[in-house]
Amino acid sequence: MVSIDINCDMEEALRFDRLTEQEEILNYLTSINIPCGFHAGNPHTISRILEIAMNHQINVGAHPGYPDPQSFGRRSMNLSMKEAYEIVLYQVAAVEGMARALGGELNHVKLHGAFYMEAAERPDLSEAVVRAIMDINEDLILYAFSGSSLVQVALEHGLQVAEEVFADRVYLPNGRLAPREMEGSVLLKQEDIFKQATQLILEQQVQTIDGGTIEVAADTLCIYRENVNTISFLRDLHLWAHENDVAIEPIR
């Protein structure tokens, strides 16, 4: 049976304090990623989301980003390896410690924004990120962009990896995501997002911006909460999965 993890970044919930919607969306997810206070979040929001997630018995991940709340972590900061190592160490250790104190455990780590994309391209950043995670807990899983340098470096060090794909982002022919500033870089119609999600899960392929098709490894599917129809989309995806013998389940 084909299986897929569904993960979601929780920044939007924190920014708009949509706790009611948080509770509902968690019924359809298997993993969430909690911002660690640098690009979004604070000790109070981290604690609240940890408690909610533990009540729903879904995987919790740390979501470290650049120390750049003004740009929501989407601006390059050109960090050195040492700086990158230290900000990952600090953020992941904080969320892991809070999770343990509240009676839960941290399952994975997924970078945010510019940090995520730059570590996918730069072997030096990949090395710093992987080293920091392993120095905290070698049993953590790294969620990383499918086919990226970060995946390769993590596997070389023996760190478990979940290769991530995106339901609503347009792919370039080289396998990377189209930059957000590029027109048409984000799928807006729910039927287009659904078509891409099912193609990624069943075929391990995705159509690129030029109409071609490339192969990808899809262990976990990222769903953004910015789409107002996210709940409806997730309901439909679960129904489709049931009808097509696809297991939606967490990675452990």
Describe this protein's structure.
The protein is built from nine helices and ten strands. It has about 250 residues and is an alpha/beta fold. Helix 3 (about 45-55) links the parallel strand 2 and strand 3. The protein is globular, with a radius of gyration of 17 Å. The mean pLDDT is about 90.
Strand portion: 15-25%
Largest sheet, order of strands side by side? 1-2-3-4-5-6-9
Count of runs of 4 or more consecutive helical residues: 9
Task: Tell me about the largest β-sheet.
Answer: 7 strands, parallel, barrel
What level of helicity do the residues show?
A: 40-55%
Helix and strand content put the structural class at: alpha/beta
Tally of DSSP β-strands? 10
Mean pLDDT: 92
**Which of globular, elongated, flat, extended, rod-shaped describes the shape?**
globular
User: What is the first-to-last residue Cα distance?
Assistant: 17 Å
Helix-strand layout with pairing:
Elements: E1 2-9, H1 11-16, H2 19-25, E2 31-35, H3 43-56, E3 59-63, H4 81-101, E4 108-110, H5 113-121, H6 123-136, E5 141-145, H7 149-156, E6 161-166, H8 190-203, E7 205-207, E8 213-215, E9 220-223, H9 230-243, E10 246-248
Parallel strand pairs: 1-2, 1-9, 1-10, 2-3, 3-4, 4-5, 5-6, 6-9
Antiparallel strand pairs: 7-8
Helix pairs in contact: 4-6, 5-6, 6-7
